[in-house]
Design a protein that fits this description.
Two copies of one chain form a homodimer. Chain A has helices at about 15-25, 30-50, 95-110, 130-135, and strands at about 5-10, 55-60, 65-75, 80-90, 115-120, 140-150, 155-160. The first copy, chain A, is α+β, with helices and mostly antiparallel strands and about 170 residues long. Chain A has a single domain, classed as Gcn5-related N-acetyltransferase (GNAT) (Aminopeptidase), CATH 3.40.630.30. In chain A, strands 1-2-3-4-5-7-6 form a seven-stranded mixed sheet, with helices on both faces. Chains A and B meet through helix 2, strand 6 and strand 7 of A and helix 2, strand 6 and strand 7 of B.
Chain lengths: ~170, ~170
């Protein structure tokens, strides 16, 4: 059976909190602390709206959330955005949903004034697919910070310069 | 007349908010938006204490604040801290207060579990003294992110690995 079409929305609802918790936790990819950080951004968004600095793009299929992205302007920077989270439900992975959600997120960021998008990820082997995903999506390595997350676990900073109409 | 001795404290009080606003604003160095960001961290600290993730070290002389630092653990990282702010009152600069406050802040961070301290700053010429200050204090350039803050205004990420008793 073909996948139902993805539907996107940028409004985050209180009921999304639990759905996002399950989605992030269900990947088996993130630590308890990382899940808590993801939910902190959800809570900030629900409490303060745009003032939180966290924007969400939720991709749903057939009434449930298949993936979501969270991004926002970097405080103190004029037109640089941080892509904080992009997570696809474990049961929906490997269907191109992440790539479509990322492209849609970049369009939204450009509308919000972004010129550069930064995405941080770990240099650990567990994150090799994540790094390959960003590289295939036009992101380049801007920096590597040795032992950033923990001894032996460095941080890779990716950046993508968004296309503008003016060139 | 000799400077009165610096006294340090880590408890932030509601009355410090206005003193810190004046201190940061009074340097003439920071934009309105940057002053607002500095105060956001103060407000978070006053509201949530250690749970805010923002720790303060206030250096006072003769009943007024001469300088302050704000730092904290980087979410998701095991023993990396970010030095968010270190500001010396305009009328108290060039007396070594910044260096002493930084050394004291590093000791506090080490007590809180820090192994690496990161400090971000601008590559703009206005920040040449800031960069020289970090370099003289044992920080090394870990990364340069072109156009991060604005076109032509890149970010330099400094890092210092703190000494440990175990070597």
């Amino acid at each position: 059976m073909a996948d139902p079409a993805l539907r996107y929305r940028t409004d985050l609802r209180p009921a999304d909190r639990e759905a996002i918790r399950r989605l992030v936790d269900g990947t088996g990819f993130f630590s308890e602390e990382e899940v808590a950080i993801a939910l902190e951004l959800v809570d900030e968004r629900l409490r303060k709206g745009d003032d939180s600095g966290y924007h969400f793009l939720v991709a749903g299929q057939g009434g449930r959330i298949s993936a979501y992205a969270c991004y926002g302007p970097i405080p103190g920077a004029r037109s640089s955005f941080d892509l904080y989270w992009l997570v696809v439900d474990a049961s929906r992975q490997r269907r191109g949903i992440g790539g479509r959600l990322l492209a849609r997120s970049e369009s939204r960021m450009a509308e919000l004034g972004a010129r550069r998008v930064y995405a941080d990820t770990s240099a650990r082997s567990q994150y090799a697919p994540t790094r390959a995903f960003y590289e295939a999506s036009g992101y380049t390595r801007a920096a590597f910070l040795e032992d950033f997350y923990a001894p032996g676990d460095g941080k890779v900073i990716y950046v993508k310069v968004l296309a503008t109409d003016s060139g």
